[in-house]
Design brief:
By secondary structure, chain A is of the alpha+beta class. Chain A is 39% helix and 28% strand. In chain A, strand 6 and strand 7 form a beta hairpin. Chain A is globular. Classes of the chains: A alpha+beta, B alpha/beta.
């Protein structure tokens, strides 16, 4: 079972951020119970949540949709303008914004929260340690993974289900 | 008139977003300088004149909070307007950064109307020396 609040806020943070920044709408969002092996052509970013909960978030794209999102965000018409570094930076910035939105909704307004600096990379990124919730989203038939993990979020997910 | 703007953010994507929003707000002729962290931004401020700083909060080397504090305690820069853009936007943080002297705190991703509203506070205020 998934905590409805956690699901609602993660789903909302991901859809609103990606749609606002790239103008590409999500076609579907499903909860994935078990992490699958990441694809070789994957680009990913993770960010640590430091306060008041501790945990981590993950955002992973396949190369084709990462390219499309970055082209849309930068307004490029020619693929050659786009570098791998810019694609990874785009994913990190999307995750940074998603995690901020997610925590803004989850945490009482009088309580500040703190995030670490995003890490980014390419290749398979299977799962976070103690993954609490993983969503598989599709844009133009390509998959995007957004996940949150860590003991605090696992405990939250198991509460008030 | 704001003619020289310094943008500090470790993300090239975020800096591009801010520049695009500034253009849409009528600042297409502004001279824009970019820095990848607070330390680089502060070093640039030491040697060049800037009318406005737009900074991210969470950056390596020196974060936006420390950059803001350094500006406010500098005899030459203390009255420089600073806008903070952050993904960790919430009322508790807004209160803290306002107390430290931020002109406004805007959540990511920023949009032209939100930026325009924040910048409208500068237009008629001689205190900022625009």
């Amino acid at each position: 079972m998934t905590n409805e609040t956690l699901l609602k806020y993660l789903e909302k943070a991901a859809t609103v951020t990606i749609e606002e920044m790239s103008f590409l709408p999500f076609e579907s969002i499903t909860i994935v119970e078990k992490a699958e092996d990441g694809s070789e052509d994957q680009l990913w970013s993770t960010i640590e949540i430091l306060e008041p909960y501790t945990g981590k978030m993950l955002l992973a794209f396949t190369n084709d949709i990462a390219k499309e999102l970055a082209m849309s965000i930068y307004g490029f018409e020619d693929e050659n303008e786009l570098t791998d570094e810019l694609m990874l930076d785009t994913i990190s910035e999307l995750l940074n914004t998603i995690s901020g939105r997610f925590l803004s909704n989850l945490i009482p307004p009088d309580q500040a929260f703190k995030l670490g600096l995003p890490l980014k990379g390419t290749g398979p990124k299977e799962s976070l340690q103690d993954e609490a919730l993983r969503l598989k989203c599709t844009i133009e038939e390509s998959e995007i993974i957004v996940a949150v993990g860590g003991e605090d979020f696992c405990a939250y997910n198991e509460s008030n289900v | 008139m704001i003619g020289r703007i310094l943008i500090a953010d470790d993300s090239a994507t975020a800096r591009m977003f801010i520049k695009r929003c500034l253009e849409m707000c009528g600042y297409q002729d502004a001279e824009i300088t970019e820095a990848e962290n607070g330390l680089e931004a502060f070093n640039l401020l030491k040697k060049s004149r800037v009318d406005l700083v737009i900074t991210d909060l969470n950056m390596p080397e020196m974060d936006g909070r420390e950059l803001l504090q350094k500006i406010r305690t500098s005899p030459r820069l203390f009255d420089l307007p600073v806008l903070v853009i952050t993904s960790a936007d919430n009322p508790a943080l807004t209160e803290e950064l306002t107390r430290l002297g931020a002109l406004a705190i805007l959540g990511k991703p920023i949009s032209p109307p939100v930026l325009a509203e924040a910048l409208s506070n500068l237009g008629n205020d001689d205190e900022w020396g625009a």
